[in-house]
């Protein structure tokens, strides 16, 4: 048994899948400045430190404003490659064995960057990560919910020639006032095309948004979903359907969903029987990659190593992977825990 190593080493070594990760949210200020310089894109921040100082968020929207601004320096295939490769190196060092990456094509196509440029760069890095780091992957196209569904439908048509390169679609951006019900047509098209479907719901929005995501979009996983605990019937539904939540603890405290990690609902959801997974969301902005999320959550909520291992097994159960690969990865967790 592993008992002598530090909790930090345990959290880093534990094999896991990352299922809630916005690639644009992995843009570290140093890389952002380097890419802005090589692309000749002016920044309103004079230094890396000044940019970092602006990462003092009050809610989801205050973060999204700066996140979209940062993504504005990404222009070329090599930029998307560099961004994704830098993330994969960090993730592999954190024990990530499989990743399902979100990307927001509208953030880029609305600036004139071709859809294929974005996807080509991300996918080239992921293929290299699979070959050189042994990290398998899926790519999830997210629609921006603050834009009309017609824009999402146009994006889906743009993506059509590339659907074989995607594992699923999702829904992200500003939540309150933009309920899942507004995206039923585009999600129906995605399901008809054989894609998996997920959506952010119950991050800042109420349990009603989680019900809409389940009933109207027919999502297979809920991204965040942490407010589900306010509705016992909804919790029962998540438990009985084994519908996983992709929880992002450091994101939730950075965006003031919870005042402190010790107030987080994830332990209560887990104890109720919900399939909880831990993820980093936008790690360059929220103070830590996935192992840091495991570590700080364990310390704040007093979770033992067996519970962390359960979250890791949950991440493989929740992944959009063939059963054989899931079993192989879960066996890695068992072997790691046994030492
Ligand atoms: N886009 C990037 N991160 C997000 C989050 N946490 N919620 C909604 N949209 C996002
Ligand atoms: Zn997210």
How would you sum up this structure in a few lines?
The chain is an alpha/beta fold and 339 residues long.
Kindly describe this structure:
It is a single chain. The chain has 339 residues and is an alpha/beta fold. It has a single domain (2-334), classed as Metal-dependent hydrolases (TIM Barrel). The chain is 51% helix and 13% strand. It is built from 17 helices and 8 strands. It has an 8-stranded parallel sheet. It binds adenine and zinc ion. Adenine is lined by residues 22, 25, 60, 67, 172-173, 200, 203, 251, 281-282.
Please state the average pLDDT score.
Answer: 98
Unreliable segments of 5+ consecutive residues: none
Bound molecules: adenine, zinc ion
**Strands in their spatial order, largest beta sheet:** 1-2-3-4-5-6-7-8
Instruction: Please report the distance between the alpha carbons of the first and last residues.
Output: 5 Å
Q: Helix amount, in percent?
A: 40-55%
Number of helices, counting only DSSP H or I runs of 4 residues or more: 17
Radius of gyration: 19 Å
**What percentage of the residues does DSSP assign to strands (E)?**
5-15%
Number of strands: 8
Structural class: alpha/beta
Report the major sheet. Answer: 8 strands, parallel
Q: Give the SSE order as H and E letters.
A: HEHHHHEHHEHEHEHEHEHHEHHHH
Shape: globular
- CATH domain fold name: TIM Barrel
CATH architectural arrangement: Alpha-Beta Barrel
Tell me the name of the CATH class.
Answer: Alpha Beta
CATH superfamily: Metal-dependent hydrolases
- Indicate how many domains the architecture comprises: 1
């Amino acid at each position: 048994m592993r008992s002598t190593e530090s909790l930090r080493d345990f959290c880093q070594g534990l094999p896991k899948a990352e299922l809630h990760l916005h690639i644009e949210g992995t843009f570290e200020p140093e890389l952002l400045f380097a890419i802005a310089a090589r692309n000749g894109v002016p920044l309103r921040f004079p230094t890396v430190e000044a940019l970092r100082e602006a990462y003092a968020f009050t809610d989801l929207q205050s973060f999204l404003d700066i996140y979209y601004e940062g993504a504005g320096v990404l222009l070329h295939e090599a930029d998307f490659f560099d961004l994704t490769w830098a993330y994969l190196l960090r993730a592999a060092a954190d024990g990530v064995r499989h990743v399902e990456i979100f990307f927001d094509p509208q953030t880029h196509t609305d600036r004139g960057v071709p859809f294929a440029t974005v996807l080509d760069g991300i996918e080239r890095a992921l293929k290299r990560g699979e070959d050189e780091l042994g990290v398998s992957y899926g790519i999830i196209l997210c629609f921006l919910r603050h834009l009309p569904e017609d824009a999402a439908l146009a994006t889906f048509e743009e993506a059509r020639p590339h659907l074989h390169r995607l594992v699923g679609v999702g829904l992200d951006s500003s939540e309150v006032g933009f309920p899942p019900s507004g995206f039923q047509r585009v999600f129906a098209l995605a399901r008809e095309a054989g894609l998996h479907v997920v959506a952010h719901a119950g991050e800042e929005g109420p349990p009603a948004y989680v019900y809409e995501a389940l009933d109207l979009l027919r999502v297979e996983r809920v991204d965040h979903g942490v407010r589900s605990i306010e509705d016992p019937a909804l919790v029962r539904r998540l438990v009985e359907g084994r519908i996983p939540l992709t929880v992002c603890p450091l994101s939730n405290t950075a965006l003031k969903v919870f005042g402190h990690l010790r107030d987080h609902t994830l332990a209560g959801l887990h104890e109720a029987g919900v399939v909880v997974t831990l993820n980093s969301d936008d790690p360059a902005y929220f103070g830590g990659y996935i192992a840091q999320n495991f570590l700080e959550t364990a310390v704040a909520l007093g979770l033992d190593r067996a519970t962390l291992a359960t979250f890791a097994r949950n991440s493989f159960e929740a992944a959009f992977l063939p059963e054989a690969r899931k079993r192989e990865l879960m066996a890695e967790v068992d072997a790691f825990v046994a030492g």
